[in-house]
Amino acid sequence: MQRGRQNKAVAVICDGIGGFLRGEEASSYVVRQIANWFMSEGYQKKGRKRNQALQQFLFQIHEEIKEYGKEKGSPLGTTVTLVLIDNFKLYWFHCGDCRLYLSRGGKVKKLTPDHQDEKGNLNRAIGAGEWHVLDSGSVRIGKKDRLLLCSDGLYRMMEKEEWKIWFEKKVNSDEQARRMLKQLFQKKMAKGEKDNLSALYFGYTKRTEI
Description:
Oligomer: single chain
Helix content: 25-40%
Strand order of the largest sheet: 1-2-3-4-7
Distance between the termini: 9 Å
CATH architecture: 4-Layer Sandwich
CATH class: Alpha Beta
Mean pLDDT: 84
Number of helices: 5
Strand content: 25-35%
Low-confidence stretches: none
Number of domains: 1
Order of helices and strands: EEHHEEEEEEHHHE
Number of strands: 9
Structural class: alpha+beta
């Protein structure tokens, strides 16, 4: 979602926990709330004040979901990986096991950590367990950089050659990106993947729009 003429945008991926229906409920709620926050006030804020305001906002959402789960007698929660774009600066905020990848100069780098224990169980989520300030970071991005924001259902068991083909192929339109993602989803499901598959692929176009 983009706001204004200065190439400010937000992108977010959530992967719900607590059963299919409860997980879907938590993840969709978080996405909606973040979108509303960005459109109403987030796009106007800058620097440390914006980052602090976002962390506080996510804490409020965490408490709301946690209280809702208590009322319903059914715990729920969601991972969240959030990206804010301010012209050529990218800021990320993260908890859980979704991932943000940066492709630059033919190399792919994972920017976000995985919040899992030794058995692969999540130890951080919005709405479940104790509150943890989201891990965060920033990086300058260029016109040739590409980013992939995805759930664990997509990156799990991804082969090296699949990554290479994905990031080396030039994507010149939204439609092409959707088509490539659809093909990747189908390939993963054909391999037996049953987990949620969610992804966003983005970068600057020739018009320097995100």
